[in-house]
Write a structure and sequence with these properties.
The protein is mostly helical. Helix content is 42%, strand content 9%. It has a two-stranded antiparallel sheet with strand order 1-2.
Length: 113
């Protein structure tokens, strides 16, 4: 009998949690609204992304090289790193880099993060 009551209470709490999340949400409206900014892209100066050229050694991967250049964890999502690498290297795929060849790697700074 106690197990049935506990299961009923847990189910009611779960239903209330889902209802509350869908109707009210857990993010305060003031912080969600204040984080949106509209920027006119014509006023932003276009800059060439900085990069570094690195010769590939045995065991190197695009991610390990970026981590080495940053001296720490990845500063941007992996999808962006892959996209930036392909753009800098005329469509070369990160998984097809070759030992001994030199490739351009995006150099991320505080503004890119």
């Amino acid at each position: 009998m106690m197990k049935k009551i506990a299961a009923l209470i847990a189910t009611l709490i779960l239903i209330y949690s889902v209802y509350y999340d869908l109707t009210t949400g857990v993010i305060p409206r003031s912080s969600a609204e204040s984080s949106v900014q509209i920027v006119d892209i014509q006023t932003i100066p276009v800059q060439q992304d900085p990069f570094m050229e690195v010769e590939i050694k045995p065991g190197d991967t695009v991610i390990s090289i970026i981590e080495g250049l940053q001296q720490g964890p990845l500063p941007v999502p992996i999808a962006q790193i892959v996209s930036d690498f392909e753009e800098l290297n005329n469509g070369a795929k990160p998984e097809q880099i070759q030992i001994g060849k030199t490739y351009k790697f995006p150099a991320y700074n505080q503004q890119n993060r």
